[in-house]
User: Fold these one by one.
Assistant:
Number 1:
Amino acid sequence: MSEKLRAAVVGAGRMGMIHGHLLQVHPETELVGFVDRDQSLAAHLASQGLRAPLHPSIDALVAAGKPDAFFICTPTHTHLPVVRECLKHKAHLFVEKPLATTLEDSAAILAAATEAGVTHAGGYVYTHLPVVKAAHDLVQAGVLGELIRFTSHAYISEVFSQKQGWFFQREQAGGGVVANMGSHLFAILSWLFGPIRRVVGTTRSHFTASDDSAQVLLTFASGVTGMVDTSWSMPGTQMLDYGLTVDGKNGTLVLERERILLHLLAPAAGNEAGWSEIHASDVPADTAFDISPHIGGEAFYRQLSAFVTACRSGTQPFCSLVESLNVQRMIDGVYRSAASGDPVTFA
Amino acid sequence: MNDLVLDLKPPEARHYHSWRDRIHSVARFHQPDEVHALCEKAYDLGARAVLAVVDPTIREALTAFQQWRPVPVWAVVPNMQAFIRDLTDLGMVGAARARFMRLRLTDMLRVGLGAVAQVKGVLKKDFATGVNLVAGMELAGLRGLTVSRLFLHPQATEVALAGGVTGVFTNVLKQAERLGVDAGIVTNNPVRAAEVLGDDFRRFAVVVSPCNPKGYKMFPSREACERLFRSDPGRFLPSEITAGGAVSWAGGLAYVRALGLTGALVDPTQVEEAFHGRATARASAL
């Protein structure tokens, strides 16, 4: 690999541009090109200061110089063919969330990336918030003792009428709120509790032909059971509002946007008994540039740093496509359970 | 010298500790009278300007507030969070069109005449033109308010800084000049802003950026931000001085004063807490 990670972005939509900006700003990366069939976007990219050339195809981009990594930011239903094409060039992969529109496609993406022997990561950006990592570290350190249950929510004010963009079309986006917003919470739960075992879900459509809200009961292989309530038709929050409360035999952890409240019955791993607060400002941000102060914040930069570190060391980051596939099982489980009325179990 | 400045934005555009806090605050601050009362409390505490992302509720409250108090608005345009929602659904041109269609007829005519010259840029999805046009639409809706400073919304600012798109900032300076007001910057990346803008950085009367003893939201680092703030303390208005609630107001203020900064941005929660604390102190002195 060259000194800087040379990366290309496939798909020049909103997320592609965010990743493009970060690849330009991050000191360890170089943005070498965009790929998009819509060549009229070249002027738009340039007007945002995204200086890398726009190519009409992956082959054309590679012909100009093979990148070390591809960032796949195309509409979800295209992820599998795009991944296959990128992997022909043995480059590392970052795939925006959700991984695919179906569980089968998601499994095929992970299998292809694994077979190619490349580093891979998924785009569940909220797992990179410093306060979420702090919560993960506390749970992993066993401060709550044996984990018992959780309750959680993920709400946003996004859909109050029929929508036109691809993001709101089930066939192209892989679903509605569950696949596109609730999945952020699923990714945090996956990181905290491990492989999913059983899903019971119900969904409702209020404004669109897709799911606009859902209530989900999840059981993880670790034995942890809990509930997720999600909606993108909830008034009052322009940014994703999420919350998580985890109960263990030694206490409770409450994860909020900018802090963790921890109640322990007995001291554990250096944490005192009783209530304590860990604020986002108490944990290192490790961020040199904040591309999106209100949505994701420093998490986007940390997400890129984690990917670069993994590519350099030839390892898989904690946010690899293995995690993305676990999230996809939850998404798939919700939709199948909602359709059949039965629980969905994964081996 | 900077005074205290109230940070006012639609309540649904803030982060809260809990969902319960959110629905309480959103319900409350959707009432113009509640926003007006908040402005009065902030004034009582020493706020002499309001940094505002203006929606209809805030506009109504500020109109009433400015009838009684000579407190100017520092306008932040456009309301990017609301715009991004449209952007995901309709794309840039569709989102701009949707904004345009929400204007009053007189504002439509005014903006429409100005927009003719920018049609080419909009159709080519030129970033600076698009931001400028949407900002112009929101400014048209601010007529009647006393505005003394103009800011680009931080979501657009950070993207422009990432790409080094100085034209976006030049447009803000031009818009401000046309209105006869100062231009300012709100950013979490002040060091980057100074690098990208070079000498033009000093054409912005004020730069609002996080500054607190914990280094919270101070990018790329607390040390780099402190160096910048010390180099020209009169230009910076510190925000996040309580590091999101982790530091006391007094502690945060002492820190920014030690850096030579005056004034501070205060959010509604800080205003409520400080006002309540003062009221309690008055009551106990009786």
Number 2:
Amino acid sequence: MNLTWRRIVLSLSPIWAVLTSLLLGAGLIIAAGANPITAYYAIFMGAFSDIWGINSTLLKTIPLMFAGVAVALAFKGGYFNIGIGGQIFLGGIGAALAGLYLKGLPPVLHIFLAFLAGFITGGVWSLVPGYLKAARGVNEIITCIFMHFIAYYFLEYMASGPLMELGAPAPMSPEIAKSAQLPIIIPNTDVHLGLIFAMALAVILQVVFKKTTIGYQITATGLNPTACRYAGMNTVRNIIILSFVSGGLAGMAGASEIMGLKHRLFGSMPFLYGLEAIAIVFLAKTNPIGVMIGSLFLGALRSGAEMMQRSIGVPTDLARAIEGFVILFVAISIALPQWRPDWFKERIDSEKIN
Amino acid sequence: MWEIISSTSFLVDFAVAVIRMTTPLIFAGLACVIAERCGIFNIGAEGMMLAGAFVGAVGAHFTGSAWIGISFACILGIFLGLLLAGLTVTLRANQMVSGVTINILSLGLTSFLFRIIMGSATTQILPELETWSVPFLVKIPILGPILFKQSPLSYISYAIAILLTITFFKMTWGLSIRAAGEHPRAVETAGINVFLVKYICLVFSGIFASLGGAFLSVGMVRYFTENMSAGRGFIGLTIVIMGKWHPMGAVLAACVFGAVDAFQLRMQAFDLGIPYHFLIMLPYICGMVAIAGVVGRTQEPAWLGKPYQKED
Amino acid sequence: MKSALPNGRSGEETILPFLEMKNISKRFGAALANNEICFDVERGEVHALLGENGAGKTTLMNILYGLYTPDEGNIYLDGKLVEISSPKMATELHIGMIHQHFMLIPQFSVAENIVLGLPSSRPPFLDIKQAEENIDKISREYGLHIDPKVLISQLPLGLQQRVEILKALYRKTDLLILDEPTAVLTPLEVEAFFKIMRRLTQTGLAVIFISHKLNEVVSISDRITVLRGGTVIGTLKNEGVNPNQLANMMIGKEMTIASKKPPTGKGKRLLEVKNLSALGEHEGKEVLKNVSFNTHEGEILGIAGVDGNGQGELAEVIAGLRPSSNGKIVVNGVDVTHLSPRERIEMKLGYIPSDRQNVGLIMDLSVGDNFVLKNFRDPPFASGQFLLHAKNISINAERLIKSFDIKVSHGKITTSSLSGGNQQKVILARELSAEPMVLIAMQPTRGLDVGSANYVNQCILEHREKGGATIFISTELDEIISISDRIAIMYEGEIMGILPGGKTADLELIALMMAGVRSKD
């Protein structure tokens, strides 16, 4: 009986985590005074039933996918880049600068440069905690969060100060050059080229992980940095580069928001710590293809929740609460196989009989 | 400007503000100290504070009593501590992941529940938590009103710091706690239940963090808003390091941060030519500098962050 | 004269033994660690539990100390049945255990370590002063004096062991279990330790002495129980016992000591270490002081010494993992002193670390991936230093699994599921297949059963025959003496001397040097 119970519990895969979270979410919906079935139906329909729903879903998915790829890359290498929020803000600023101050460029070049600017600004922002961790062993979670807050206020400053459009009612920059704006790829929607870029990045990351020496090093370093050091890898340099690239990818999330959707820099961006990306990566277990699916799921959840709030009145924060539950159950399901009740653990101990 | 700053009333006012802003940081710092001393990073302190702020506010609002709200926050803290312990001690999940999980969960749930419980009311005036004046001492000129007329939670935070210090260094349990953070296997062979020690420490960590949050909402601003903890839990992690894992050291470090925060708030009133955004950043920049430049990390508990597995 | 009864006692006594373990069995999954073991100890006796690595000695004692529960069997103290379910219970029954790796907290004082877990005289407050006085008294009583205020981190290992003994005495231990207590002692300290043991047993203390070292067991114990494969092979009284007989019981078959060809004259100097110094992490203490030696083609240079005298640091400095503060390292004529670990690997320097699970291997990666941990960037495993060729990595894995006889079905299996001996073979395969010129082997046979240990030594001898140079670091004196051509003895970061190894080894001088004495005068 012990064994079957274990098997059931051990198979708590991402799917179980999601289902359990939805169940708990149903409890929350009831607490809000609504019917869970109508609520979830509203979410699903809101996300997928018509062109506006799909539009909203995909638009939300794009930055989540960029961010998810960024976090997946970092986590795989053992670096907890939870400062992607701040890196996204910086990336947006970088892209806005490129979009506002570079003039007279053909669109292809302008878009490339704007993405590059976003990549660099996001990457540099991530270098600070990355360097501190690699060279000084400073815990990156704390430094990432601090950098996030600093970036948050810096963004506010930029949009209300140096970059602010004269006479604007709220902190926002002028519209960026048309040549820097991302073209729409689905007619009659706002869905822009960023979607293709994000998907391409996910695929590229998968290839890198599985088939390149870089991917090998990242995976190995994430599992056992000491052994990597002894095997001759320059782990300090590797972590620094990893943090830069991860931050750069997060920066591209911000860039794509500015270039594809908003077309100007606003004083705030709807990313709180970028924690949602972490939820995705947990679900996907750092698998880039899983990240694509996970970000679509989260994008659908969020846009559907907006529709749900409009029709039934249950607050959209439900989506956030469900995300929280998902992370909790995924964290448990990751930890459970390592939790070996005595008889299971003793099998491993038999190797160490002395 | 200088005349204003050096005036007595400004200084008194400033000092009172510093103490007010320090109190939640002391709670956060102490929560992290007791957790790290037994070997666990409480990255979730931020989420615990936020949850405590929420529950405290809701409790105070619906019962009309600030103290009852605060008690609710304490009870929540117990559960949060148990949750963290279940994840990190029993399941031996990664401590970073567990903490981040609690933060995200807390953010999502408090935002949602706040919305449905409080409806469209954006500001609520919560029942007041009256300050306590220490008789006689409060009459001392200048220092009296500053030091001896504070929120009861502030006094509680000092008391906890002193109690923790005594416990760690003068009590048998304290020896066991410190040992568990250094060499849990040795503690086990000495016959002590290491898991129990860690569970108890984390429960207290949860209580302290939640109290800190309750102070924010009930004791300080008297309302609740989304994400009002604003990173204080993370500053708590910095405070531990700066205070060298000593409760009184944490109090001192918390004062430094509290002073910086109060300072930047005051400076916003003056037209210094610095955009106020940069002033708000100040505590976080200080936090970065502190954590990046701290030497002497060899003082951290030796088993901090490592999962511990019992033999059989 | 061998005794009449199977448990080694003569038939005249009718007193019950102090401790009796009857038919103890313990299973870990499919492996039977203890198989119906019967074992008893009398008051005032030193009873040795002898067996090689993996025989089940520590498992049995962990059961006695309450860290494991037996699947079958009973334990009796003075004839009464007891159930020992935790170390706390064991302590209450006055059973104490000193583990191989000390259970002491470096940042605490001696007194704090001793009173940890004990009720205080003024509960709930810690009464350190009273404890310090009590410890002072007891330590003088038993001739084991130590300052109770000193921090453990400031004590050498020999004195730390003394603290462990005091811990047991403070708890009024009647039965003391010692798990490989001489592993951290120099030969001279071992003598002193035995004297202490004899004195303690005179007061009635019963001692169980776990060891795999034949000679020590013969010199200190009253009775010897030999374990092999989880079963008791025999219990003998230590009167005129023949060490070879014991060795046979331990291993069960004739062990073939690998024969060596003498080194082919003075070959080329492959490794030259000159005036090498290095600083440790704590307050600029020098962990290596002016170390100089050479190693030649076809030579095995053993580095002997008690664990913690700088051998590990020396290996790390040569491999490039720790900076040196002074001196030179030359590999095959090339000065590598300031080269990175990667560059030294390219100069054909191989390194087998002592911690195979945390340092030598990435346990969660497959065996095949671990094989290429050092050369995954090079052809044929990758082209352009970028694109991996999974197929070549697989082929390589199959080849190495076969030639090194690693017990695993194929290269894609995760390394953590291999046994210790096979894990070590993976490391060996990786290092030796790169055909290094200089191989640094740090404790390569630690924790391995005799079969695997033998295999490792064979591989190193083959490397020697092919002309490679080896630095063989080990704390097992017997092993080092038999395998090395020359032996350097390290003490507190210095080389005390370099002496010939093998049959002509001067054991007395080596033992002296390990204790810090340079010559016999």
